[in-house]
Amino acid sequence: MAVTDAAIDKIKEMIISGELSPGARLPKESDLATRLGLSRNSLREAVRALALIHVLDVRQGDGTYVTSLEPHLLLDAMSFVVDFHRDDTVLQFFQVRRILEPAATELAATLMTEPDIADLRTILDSLPTEPTVEELVANDLQFHHRIAQGSGNAVLCSLIENLSGPTTRARIWRGLTQEGAFAKTREQHVAICDAIAARQPEVAKAWATVHVAGVEDWLRNALA
Q1: Which string of DSSP letters, residue by residue, matches 145-204?
Q2: Total H helices, total E strands in the chain
Q3: Which of 46, 87, 107, 224 is deepest in the core (most CB within 10 A)?
Q4: CA–CA dist 183, 130 (Å, integer)
Q5: What's the pTM value of the predicted model, to 2 decimals?
Q6: What does the pLDDT read at residue 183?
Q7: According to the CATH classification, is domain 87-223 in 1.20.120.530?
């Protein structure tokens, strides 16, 4: 079991047992991490995941609280997860991404200007050292959009943009549940950018294929 999943389960047990009731405030992060035998980073990721589905409410400068847990609140958020796991057509969108994005990346390695590549580096450098899942996914979308623009093909860029929406929730869920998702994404983005900067179309295409195929493989296992 992933460390984040284990952390989620421990917090969930506290709620189910009644130790944490609706509206209750969670103990201080350091105290709760020690008590549950978790690292503060794992606890933080668990809190983010539970906040996403409205089980917890993170109030900046105040603390983290259990929500009211009313059915309408939970059902609205859980539809995100339910739809994701039932709708395996999202896998087909990733399969199309695996065809189009490497092609766009190959073109970008030939056509992007030095200022374009500098823009791509800026996008990479703008990602915090310890980003939230939302920041990671937003940066990922921006990175791929810039490469699609750099392909010089407006139709190809438009097709890739239209694929972004249906795959965003899968990217978010991967960021929440897969250990090392940030490090892997960052490493592959840097490799793609370096290949584009070095004017190596085939290498850039290969890294883009590895990048998209990796997410596709994770999604296939998740849907299974």
Answers
A1: HHHHHHTS-HHHHHHHHHHHHHHHHHHHHHHHHSTTHHHHHHHHHHHHHHHHHTT-HHHH
A2: 10, 2
A3: 46
A4: 10
A5: 0.63
A6: 87
A7: yes
